[in-house]
Amino acid sequence: MKDTMTAFAVQDAIEWSLLHGMALKTARDSATHCAFSFAPTLIQQERFELLKAIVPLMGKLIHGVSEDHEFLREAISPLCNADPFFASLLALHQAIHHGPIPAERIPMLLMRTDFMDDAERGPQLIEFNGIAAGMGPFGQRAHELHHYLGYQWPSVFQHWSEDASQELVPNHCIEHLAKGIAGAAKTVRAQSGETGQPLFIMVVQPDEDNVYDQHLLEEAIQQEGVKTVRRTFRQLYDQLSSGENQRLLLNGLGGVDAIYLRAGYQYCDYVAHDVDEARCCEALGKTRVMIEQHRVTINATVSQQLATSKRVQMLLSSMTIEQLTAFGLTDDEATRIKPFLGEMRPVDHEAIARFKHENPHDWVLKNQGEGGGHCVFNDAILPKLKSLKAEDYSAWSLMRRLHPRHRSQPALVVRRGEATTVDDLISEIGMFTLHLNGHSLTSEMGYAGYLIRSKPSSVTEGGVHSGQGAVDSLAYGNKPSA
C-alpha cells in the first residue's frame, strides 16, 4: 500500500469526522477530531449476540438494585468516612427517599455497560456507567466512518483491516437513544394532561469540551418532536420551580418531562461560589433532591448513581445466584449474568497481606472515581495499598485485570491529525441499554447500540476523552480479536 494513498485516505477521514461532529472542542471557536481507528476490530457474531442478550439483564439488575434503598444505604454507608463525595450522595439519597416529600420521579436508566474480552475468561464486566453515560453518538459515527472508508477508499481500508470478508456490525445508537428518550418524555407529557412539545433538559458542565457528542443526541431528540435545552446545575438552581400535580417547571418554558445528567459525578459540578450555603455543594445538591420530588423522568437518579458505583459492583460480583435474584432477576437470568460480573475484592488488612504474594500485573486497584485517572496499576499497587489508612479501605477495591487478545496485524490510529501504526491494539466494548422504570425503551429489549474504544495494550488509561483510547467500531469476521 503506497503511503501517499494512506495519507490521502487519512486526511479524508479527518475531514469526514469534523464534518459529522465526531470532534472535541479545543477553544471557544475551534475543535479537533476525535481520535479514531482507521478500520474496525473483529468480533464473532455469536459473541456479539450473546452480549446483546446479556446487557438488558444487566439493566434489569441495576434497576432492581437502584430501587432497593435499604440495600444501597447499607452498601454505601461504609464509604462515607473515606469518600466525602459519596457521603454527600448518600445524604441526598436519604433526603429523597426518607424525607417529608415523596420521590415522584420516574427512573430512566440510560446505562453503558463496559466489557473487555479476556483471552481466557471471555467477556468480563469492567464497570457500569449509570450517570453521564455518553459517547454513544461517537460509537455510531465511528461505524459510519468505517462504512464510508470501505466505500470511498476500499484498497486502503482493506489493507488496514484484519479480515477481507468482514461485515460491519450495525450501530444505530443515536436513533435508538433519541427515540427512547423522546418516547419517555412524551409519556410524561401525556400523563400531565398538557399539550405542546415535551421538554427535555440535558444537565451539562460549564465550559465542557466533550459537547459534540451531546449535541448529536440532542439534535436527534429534536427530530423526534421534543424541545431540548442545556443547563448547568447552577442555572437550574435559579430556574426550576414547582407547579400543580408535582410538575417540575423551567422558567419561561413550562413543564419539564425528561432530564439527562451529563454532569453530577464529581464535586466540581456542584460548586457555586456565588450561593451562600453552610457547606460546599449543598445548594446545588438540593437541586437534585428537588428534581426527584417531581413527576419527571430522569437519568441518572441518585439511586442509579449509587447502584452503578464501583462499591456496589464489587458487592454484586461476589454474590451468589440466589442473592442476585433478590433484585428481581429470575434464577435463569442470574445464572446467565453471573459469569460476566468478573472478580473483585475488597481492600482490607487480609487483602493487603495476600497481595504481597500476588502478581501485581494481574490486578487493578480502583477507587470510586468516574472517568480517567482513578486506577493504580502494576508495581504501584502495593505501595498505594500500604499507604492507605484503615478508614480509607472501603473506598478502594481490587479487580482482576483483563488481558484481551490484540489485533492480529498492525492497526492505524489517527489522533490530532497524525496517523500512527499500533502493533498491539486492544478494544473495550461498551453496550448501551435504555429502560423506563424497568421497562424497555427500545425494540431490542433495551439494547440501544455500542461504543468501541481501542488502545495499545501497554496503555493503562484508555478513555477517548481523558486517555489514549480511540473510537472504533465492530465487524464480524473469522479472526476474533475483540
From TrEMBL:
It is an enzyme of class 6 (ligase). Its cofactor is Mg(2+). Residues 200-307 form the Glutathione synthase substrate-binding domain. The keyword ATP-binding applies. The keyword tRNA processing does not apply. Signal peptide: none annotated. Coiled coil: none annotated. Pathway: Sulfur metabolism; glutathione biosynthesis; glutathione from L-cysteine and L-glutamate: step 2/2. Pfam families: GSH_synth_ATP, GSH_synthase. Keywords: ATP-binding, Glutathione biosynthesis, Ligase, Magnesium, Metal-binding, Nucleotide-binding. InterPro entries: Glutathione_synthase, Glutathione_synthase_a-hlx, Glutathione_synthase_C_euk, Glutathione_synthase_N_euk, GSH-S_sub-bd_sf, GSH_synth_subst-bd, PreATP-grasp_dom_sf. Its EC number is 6.3.2.3. Residues 461-482 are annotated as: Disordered. SUPFAM superfamilies: Glutathione synthetase ATP-binding domain-like, PreATP-grasp domain. Belongs to the eukaryotic GSH synthase family. This is glutathione synthase. It comes from Kistimonas scapharcae.
